[in-house]
Amino acid sequence: MAAARIPDQSQDLATTGGAYWGNVFDLAQTFTANTTGKLDTVSLYLQVNIPAADVRPAVPDNLSIAIFATTAGLPSGSALATGGGDIPDTGAWYNFTFTTQADVVKGTVYAIVAESAAGAFISWPGVCGSDAYSRGEALINDSRSNAGWMTLPAWALANQGSPAVCQEDFAFRTFVTAAGSSPPPTGTSGSQTEKGGRSSIVLLFAGFAAAAAFVTARRMRPTLR
Predict the structure, then answer these.
(1) For residue 164, which phi and psi values (nearest 5 degrees)?
(2) Which residues make beta-bridge pairs with 172?
(3) What is residue 221's DSSP assignment?
(4) Nearest-angstrom CA–CA distance, 225 and 84
(5) Does an H or E element contain 214, and which?
(6) In angstroms, what CA-CA distances link 10 with 6, 7, 174?
(7) By the 8 A CB rule, do 225 and 147 touch?
(8) Average pLDDT over all residues of the chain
């Protein structure tokens, strides 16, 4: 019998959010694995909006998810696992199951990286004002600059700030099959697990029309700096 995947790391608070990020931004949550084995599933509390005025991209998924190793706490190297899903504009927990699992080692820091497709905008709520998850942090990479990965409060300070972009940690859960056991069969990526309420401050960066103007089509890069 295949071993069951077990919960490993999580930050369940999704009390602050509402900023919708176009695909010129990558969002990430770092975490420290507590189990050596195969990370095959992550669950994220988020939603994806596609403005009615935009032409839907000709791709099956509007959101890409990947697991990366880190260097000095920042995503680096090539993706260890990749997946995606077609996520609606409804805040809920969604599962992303990787066909090829990421090998993780207890005590090592990894990153969950999320990127929306061209024409789509991701909202990934979390918690502000407290370090709810001390074994990692929420990060943002703005491709319009050469600043690289930084915390959301640092990005807000550099970009005249907003209460909607103060998350210190995003809402996430990881699941690992311990070393020495076989992973269970994979499920459907992007599947919904449960809904939950949250307060949000919708930040559309001067409206979706303005945001869409600077969105350039690109997919998840195989290598991050």
Answers:
(1) -80, -10
(2) 11, 44
(3) -
(4) 21
(5) helix 208-214
(6) 12, 8, 6
(7) no
(8) 80
Q: In degrees to the nearest 10, what's the CA dihedral of 51, 53, 216, 98? A: 40
Q: Locate tokens 């066909």: which residue?
A: 99
**Could you tell me the two tokens for 168?**
């210190």
For residue 146, the Cα-to-chain-centroid distance in whole angstroms is 21
Confidence of residue 219 (pLDDT cuts 50, 70, 90): very low
What whole-number distance in Å separates Cα of residue 165 and Cα of residue 17? 7
73 — alpha (psi -120 to 50), left (phi > 0) or beta?
left
Phi-psi region of 18 (alpha: psi -120 to 50; beta: other; left: phi over 0): left
Task: Give the Cα separation of 129 and 210 in Å (integer).
Answer: 29
How far apart CA 66 and CA 78 sit, in angstroms, is 10
**What are the Cα distances from residue 118, in Å, to 28, 63, 65, 88, 142?**
18, 9, 15, 15, 15
DSSP states of 92-160 as a string?
Answer: EEEEEEEEEEEEE-TT-EEEEEEEEPTT-EEE--EEESS-S-TT--EEEEETTSS--EEEHHHHHHHTT
Bridge partners, 194 (sequence order)? 93
Q: What is the pLDDT of residues 129-160, one digit of tens each?
A: 889 999 999 999 999 888 999 999 999 888 87
Q: How confident is the model over 106-137, as pLDDT tens digits?
A: 999 999 999 998 888 999 999 998 899 999 99
| Angle, CA 215 vertex, CA 64 and CA 116 arms, to 5° | 15
